[in-house]
Amino acid sequence: MTESLAPSTIEDLRAALLRCAEEQASIETRGAFSKASFGGPIRQAACRLQTSRLNRLLAYEPADLTVSVEAGMRYADLSRTLAENNQFLPLDPPFAEHATVGGILAANSSGSRRRRFGTARDMTIGMRFATLDGKIVSSGGMVVKNVTGLDMAKLMIGSFGTLAVIASANFKVFPRPESFASFVFRAASAPLLELRKQILAGVLQPIAIDMLDAGAAQALGLGGSPALLVEAAGSPSVTRRFNQAFEMLAAAHGASLDGAPEGLWQRVQECGPNWLNTHPDGALVRCSTVQTGLAELLDLAARCGCAAALRAGNATGLLLAPDSETAGRAIAELRQADFRATLEAGPDSLKHSIEQWNAGGSELQLMQRIKADFDPLSLLNRSRLYGVV
Asked: What is the pTM (predicted TM-score) of this model?
């Protein structure tokens, strides 16, 4: 029978981990458990440790653009607190209403605005995490330029809780722009990719630019033709300049320029979770390439029967597979074509049948050495890091 642990203080968290280690009890960690289908398969553990009661705001200095919160605080609650001072933390993760800060960091979740603001590793300036040997390790601080020990925190980001348990995190936050404007360009994929290239080379730089093929556009309720989605921000005069410039760009490339529907970026943000909700045997394949490889990536997705939702400014994104067989085929073809491909989410049966993440030999050896240093008995979240550790 699995024992449930729900520490309400960081000291309780430290003590719980130490006790489990002394008893050599395997541990499954969770925040809101929103990303159960993400990462590697969840193996049954002796103890289930939930961090949702660690949900306090520890420090907030609006004038310094810094905030510190416990790992169990929900991203939505943090966002509402920051909004009271016209500030925001533009991680834009999936499962935004329920996901906890710790879970977002552990999965290294981010969204469309990563092009302008970066990912969790760029916004995190400090962290405390609890280890199995009963220590609370502090890394970084509350000063944006302070990098003391910050690499230790970066190890935790994207580790899916396989090394230690994040107790609290410090972030640099951003002033909320005075005005936002969103644009939807419509055309075939080739002219949209050329239009994207022109936008990225221009003086006016958007904060988000996403490419959807016809299947992904349909899944997001945006009709059945490819779309280039762009978000701009700044003063009202700046967003008006974007509108004028984009009208000319659309005309020059034979594209239509539509207004953004209500909740556009929330649809994009929750694209992966919503796909899994409507496709019980479906899967998400995370992929990346170089800017010049986007056309080939779109062609490959179409050949394999996947829809594609891509961060067009970063050459990363998701292939949306309707079933396990399609996902497996897409991953094999992506890797054969030298794209990076990871099974981000899907049924456990698929996770057990393929190599979720094709980490290189030296990279894998390094990860395994780090895992052995932090967790020599492999007690924490076994196989959650894409089945690798």
From this structure: 0.95
